[in-house]
Amino acid sequence: MGNSNSSLEFLPTTFILIGIPGLEAEHLWISIPFCLMYIIIFLGNGTILHVIRTDTALHQPMYLLLAMLALAEVGVSASTLPTVLGIFLFGTTEISFDVCLFQMFFIHSFSIMESAVLLAMSVDRFVAIYSPLRYTAILTLPRIFGTGAVMGLKSIMLMAPLPMLLRRLPFCGHNVLSHSYCLHPNLIHLPCGDISINNIYGLFIVTSTFGLDSLLIVISYGLILHTVLSITTGEGRRKALNTCGSHICAVLIYYVPMIGLSMVHRFGHHVSPLLHAMIANAYLFFPPVVNPIVYSIKTKEIHRGIVRMFSEKRARV
């Protein structure tokens, strides 16, 4: 009996990725919007990074944090690009076990970093509104760069155990995933062994990063609102709230799809696979596509920098 059970347990050499369930015949056409989204992501976020890097007037905490956000979003998108376009353009649905774990590590690491940057941006807005005269003294450039380094290191250290925890589990013939990329909530449903440790550690990561970050963001905005209400003039209140508009949009754009995906993975066992795929794609693609557009339109300094950059290029031509 023991030999029979052990023969069923194996570490898969490959996983099978799924594109859009039920629309396999249309994958080539579906590749068009995905290609357009990747172009927008890399051009949009790349432009913001270039403008902030080249314009010394933007070497301030708010814009450096925005550069970190753009970098994290580029990282998430670059992690998904090979398998997403491989499926829709070339019909390549197989991914090796180790590469899948590698992709999962980077997708979640950059996602954790993105959440941490959004928290840092909310603290930045609070300091700017609560103590504007001490803003540059509190949020110095060394502190901002140190914060970025800590956020990156934290993401790597938290995610490092997950691939090792998955490698120790038996899969017993289950190797078909639900998405075009490897996500831990999807991978953890495939093993046939005891996954309690993986579930506990996964829950710890979620609560200590996304859960804690979102709670602290809410607290930050509660303090911001309290500070704004203490401003005597209506014009002053309006200006203070306007500085938060882009960041509030970024927070909603990031957390709403993530909450939807978490709910589907936890409770949507009878939900259509198509809905699973659409929500997962919204979680990974919506923020990096929309955020560059929002910040380019709503942040005057970024908008001016982009206009200046294209004006200079046109003048050279």
UniProtKB/TrEMBL annotation:
It comes from the Eukaryota. Signal peptide: none annotated. CDD domains: 7tmA_OR51-like (cd15222). The keyword Transmembrane applies. Pfam families: 7tm_4 (PF13853). The keyword Transmembrane helix applies. It is found in: Cell membrane; Membrane. It is a multi-pass membrane protein. GO terms for molecular function: G protein-coupled receptor activity; olfactory receptor activity. Belongs to the G-protein coupled receptor 1 family. This is Olfactory receptor. It comes from Lynx canadensis. The gene is LOC115525899.
